[in-house]
Design a protein that fits this description.
By secondary structure, this protein is mainly alpha-helical. 54% of the residues lie in helices and 10% in strands. It contains seven helices and five strands.
Length: 206
């Protein structure tokens, strides 16, 4: 049974519970925020953010993410080229971390959020438990997506020795940052309560 079926609304700002009076404009007793049974236009906004992230995902992987210059010479490297260089340098653990944080995590977030949206809109035969576990996992891994950007920011700030050695962030880093921010906003914008709105025909024990 959903809280909405019992006539209860949850404030999206402070999570205060309030009695629902259909047809009226209600505000939270605690923080004064406007109450909604569900976040307005949650699916449309999440799709918009997700599509924007998917568009930026292409240049994020094709454009160089940074350029390492030694003695005035350097070659721009994309994310995947950086992973391959780490593998060739026998730094497999670091290569694995970069691959997971920069390639696998963003891809999983894009695909995972798209599957959640599609399953909710089309009432696909996916249990509520599976959907909510997927949503929580997407939220959890989101914090690791910025690992590459943090590393580049630190290296750019620390490695600056004129013509001897320097590191510069590339256009790919900006696009990758956009992908991370947009997917995080998409996960926040998506209302997980919509998952339970699509479980009427499912096993109540799921």
């Amino acid at each position: 049974m959903r809280a909405l079926d019992a006539g209860i609304l949850v404030c999206g700002e402070c999570h205060q519970l309030s009695r629902w009076a259909p047809g009226t404009r209600q505000h939270c007793r605690r923080c004064g925020a406007l109450l909604h049974p569900r976040r307005p236009n949650s699916i449309a906004r999440t799709w918009a953010l997700l599509l924007a992230a998917a568009l930026l995902y292409i240049p994020a992987n094709l454009l160089p993410i940074m350029t390492v210059s030694l003695f005035g010479q350097g070659t721009p490297a994309t994310i995947m080229e950086g992973v391959m260089e780490l593998i060739h340098a026998q730094m497999l653990p670091i290569a694995l971390v970069v691959f997971l944080a920069s390639i696998l995590v963003p891809t999983f977030k894009l695909v995972g959020i798209a599957l959640l949206l599609y399953s909710v809109q089309r009432h696909q035969p996916l249990s509520a438990r599976q959907r909510i576990l997927m949503f929580r996992f997407i939220e959890w891994i989101g914090r690791w997506s910025m690992l590459d950007i943090f590393v580049i920011a630190i290296l750019v700030a620390l490695v600056s020795f004129g013509n001897l050695a320097s590191i510069e962030a590339g256009a790919g880093a900006l696009a990758f940052s956009g992908v991370v921010v947009l997917t995080m906003l998409a996960a926040i914008t998506f209302d997980p309560r919509l998952i339970w709105d699509n479980t009427d025909a499912e096993d109540p024990h799921e």
